[in-house]
Amino acid sequence: QVHLVESGGGLVQPGGSLRLSCAASGMYFSTYAMAWYRQAPGKQRELVAAITTGGSTNYADSVKGRFTISRDNAKNTVYLQMDSLKPEDTAVYYCKASHLSQYWGQGTQVTVSS
Questions:
Q1: Each residue's pLDDT tens digit in the chain (114 positions)?
Q2: Are 78 and 71 in contact (CB under 8 A)?
């Protein structure tokens, strides 16, 4: 049974930083492409950042230069370092694993507000 568990969300002031983690179990983590998505109230879920099995990354234009995705295959974990946070980054952030099937975590809330 595949499980993805996100953590690290919370309330942060504009300009602040957070690091999200997504711990995976029940899968050969290194064979999965991993990604972070987010969904703000009343909006569609959108891709934030992705990382391939080989470590190549891509980002949404709205987060380029501010967010960094990384993975640690030894720890079965993918991270999202979020810097210079803006109120418009407020959303529930989800982790997704993709290989032959796709799996989602339960999400973690990020709120950017003064």
A1: 999 999 999 999 999 999 999 999 999 999 999 999 999 999 999 999 999 999 999 999 999 999 999 999 999 999 999 999 999 999 999 999 999 899 999 999 999 999
A2: yes
In degrees to the nearest 10, what's the CA dihedral of 73, 75, 107, 90?
A: -80
Query: Could you give the CA distance from residue 39 to residue 67 in angstroms, rounded to a whole number?
Result: 16
Q: Which residue has the tokens 């492409």?
A: 33
Dihedrals φ, ψ of 29, to 5°? -55, -40
Output the CA angle 62-23-78, nearest 5 degrees.
Answer: 40
